[in-house]
Amino acid sequence: MESMDAPGEEKEKGSLQDSLDRYVRLNNIYLLIISKYKDYIEEKEALSVAELPTLVTPKAAMVARKAADIKGEFDSYNYDANFPDAARKAFDFVSKDVGDAALPIEFWLMPEETLRFMMGDVTDKSILLCSILIALGNPSSKVVVVSRDSTRSIYVYYEFGGSIVMMDSESGKVEKFSNKDEMLKAFNLDDESAAYEFNDQMYIDIS
């Protein structure tokens, strides 16, 4: 026997579809506005290298709260004993739980905004991860940007126990190196490459 929806259910479904259609149309309007003013927005969003550290915000309320949540997953969080596992939990959260969002413009999201929307591009997610790692107690954590031709790769790394751990939220890979020179060698930097790193305290050109 073919099931039939009650009149109330049909009305509810119709209302839901109308809301969804309106949302899609509204979203298209927003995209149109963004496209029209793309150059202006990107000009206003441009940051100097000296301003990049302002994007890493380990003391921001939502970032500190997320770090506290991760610490709370341990019986009694101890940096020396638990940081590597806590860092992995932070990485899994950012790479798996925070959704990917490719915007049609160059636009910076602050870590709290990435957490609020639970979305961001690889740059936003890497900056969020770096912020959480610092909030977990590791001030050596940094974002590394490597550019070659028209491609750009972004990583986060930290120093711990005499080693370097590099995280790639885009690929989901974590690699360990014995020192920073070994990590830099893995980037295959050449005369056509540009690379820099930063956190909340510094910016350094490493190419």
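the 2nd protein, sequnce then structure:
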Amino acid sequence: MTKGKKFVIALAVLVAVALISGLTTLAVTNYGTESDPLVTLSYLNETLSPQIEGKVSAAIDAKARELEDKFDEAIDDVDTDVSTVTPAEFKVVTLSRGQTVTCSVGTEIMLRVGSASSYGSNSPRLIDETGGGSVTASGVSLTTNHMYMVTIEGNGITANASTVKVLIRGSYTVA
């Protein structure tokens, strides 16, 4: 090979390398600019965002169904049916003058007819649930239609009229 041919080949290779380097530099410097972004805003708004929203919604719906199923199972596992539970009922008790009602702790009494007073040896004798106070002494008159609660075993009421009617919920004895 002659010197001239070698020069032409070397020059062609050099020009090719320079051309490739220039095109690469041009491509790199203009790639992802504001005028030619890597991803367009319309692609984000119209394609990518709805896809992401769809996947998130599907995942949330699946988790919600799973939680609903667990909740339903937990409800089915409850043995007690709330509608079958009945609270203790009030009983109408009629007393004569001088009779006493001795109660257990938690018994509730409401004077409906006649007059009655607190009974017992331990203070407070009764708690006036309606008025929010305490009956601390024995012999204190009860107020009609007020709910009283016995908080100390053995306390109660004494009838002061010939006919006394009370509503009682809880354990008691009449003497």
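Residues 105 and 151 are 5 Å apart (CA to CA). Helices lie at 3-30, 41-77.
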